[in-house]
Amino acid sequence: MLCQDPNATVRTAIAQRLSVIAQSLNNSSDCVSLLLPCLIELCKDDDSGVREAILNTIAVCLPYFTKESRKTVVLPLLRKCTEQALILRDTSLAVVSKQLAPWLYALKEILSPQETRWFLDTYCRIVNLSAPDSDKSLQILALTCRRQCAYNFPCFAMIYSGDLFIDRLLPILEKFCNENDEEIRCTIAAGFHEILLLRPEEPLLLQIFTELIKTGVVEVIQNLVKDLHKAIPILYQMVKKEQEKRAPVCVSLFGGLL
Q1: Closest C-alpha among 209, 212, 201 to residue 234
Q2: Gene Ontology cellular component (predicted)?
Q3: Containing domain of residue 251, as a range?
Q4: Fewer CB within 10 A of the end CB, N or C, for the chain?
């Protein structure tokens, strides 16, 4: 099998093309019998480049596997790879950070409550990954992971509601909005209309929205207002409900966008 080739470049190439093969087969039984063993083998590869390639490919392959194989084989494999990346803190963790939301979305219908909670816990662990000042490479990795997590925030906002959204995700959103890294703030601003559309009844989003505007950073504001017309009715209702404490400030800021 090419996935066992002694040359890591060959194994990486196979990992990158596995999704194309799955699409060509277009048969869940064939994908399970022919591709699943290869996927398992590549996920266990000693070469980090091979592991990164297959982790980037899995989300595209998932729809082509049977429900049972996704539940009993692929999901445990993803969890193991994720935990390994968190322990090793190598470049595969950046790939996990990027793919965690696509995996969650593709698997959401087969997840148990405990498995669903694991995805949220893992997301929070990655966001809060600490790096000492003396370890510059880990600092860069942690920043890269946070950037990916910021991009994936709307997906998690879609899956997790109620207390989980308020207690676990809102603090992360506030953290992203106060990040020193402008790319993270711009990413959140660009997707803020999606968050509003997903959670229109969450009044704390209005406060976060105003804080983003008050930064005064041109790039952040440009990203914020680019698609804001899609969520203006929601913002209007939020402002309308804030009759006393925050309404004057919010109305002023909101009016300036119209």
Answers
A1: 201
A2: cytosol; protein serine/threonine phosphatase complex
A3: 161-258
A4: C
Residue (of 241, 169, 222) closest to 198 by Cα position: 169
Distances from the Cα of 206 to the Cα of 227, 232, 244, 253, angstroms: 16, 12, 14, 11
Residue 248 lies in a domain: yes
Q: How many CB atoms lie within 10 A of CB 82?
A: 23
Q: How many domains does the chain have?
A: 1
To the question of pTM greater than 0.85 for the whole model, the response is yes
pLDDT in tens, 117-144: 999 999 999 999 988 888 999 999 999 9
Tokens (6 digits) for 43: 């996920």
Q: Which residue intervals of the chain are DSSP H helices?
A: 8-25, 28-30, 36-43, 48-61, 67-69, 75-88, 92-107, 113-127, 136-159, 162-164, 170-177, 182-190, 192-198, 204-214, 218-226, 232-241, 247-257
For residue 219, being part of any structural domain is answered with: yes
Tell me the longest C-alpha to C-alpha distance in the chain: 69
